[in-house]
Amino acid sequence: MAKFAANLSMLFTEVDFLDRFQAAAEAGFKGVEYLFPYDFEAAEIRQRLDDNGLIQVLFNLPAGDWGAGERGIACHPDRIEEFRAGVDRAIEYARVLGNTQVNCLAGIQPEGVSDVEARKTLVENLRFAAEKLEAADILLIAEPINTRDIPGFFLNRTEQALALFDEVGSRNLKLQYDIYHMQIMEGDLAPTIEKHLDRIAHVQLADNPGRHEPGTGEINYPFLFAHLDRLGYQGWIGCEYKPRAGTREGLGWLKSVR
After folding, report:
1. Residue 1 has pLDDT above 80, yes or no
2. Domains of the chain
């Protein structure tokens, strides 16, 4: 049976971030994920997790200036030292929060940087991060993201990501498969998940179009959930969607799959 984690960067946004942990627990979620923890003390977040009986599932490595539109720096040749310092910072937080995986956002390919140079930088950074995180018993994951929502994002297809992972050559690097992004970029969701299940460590969801909750768009989520169960997927499914009419009002889909 699938395990669902609330993405607190997109759900329960009507309340302050630290209050979203309680809201997620009250809605029936057992785990949480979000973009970044770094604006808060790790101990403060840990207390919210403990108070609400929640598991910290996932957060991202530091990804540059998010407010200015940056979406990761792992493919930026001039930001390597910043990226490596971010790995250390993520490890510090993960040790306190108890999560055993973190996600790397490849980033938007910088203007003037060739495909070859961006790929080389990303491979080297992933190799560094995978090794450093493995020593801390933390899994590194990375995700392809659609180029409609984030034009120029460097990783945008499953096979592209896995070929790059092969070049990295680490057993401590796996795929975050976001159903919404991959529906836009390549479709063929069920066969792709089945083909690469052993390399998928985390799944995220939203429906398309609109990036709203399951049941609001074209994706057959009841089929996909049953498919994941048939395949024996043991990881979490992160609910990273924009509620169409309020988080609590749009949770009927979750009740139907329990």
Report:
1. no
2. 3-256 (3.20.20.150)
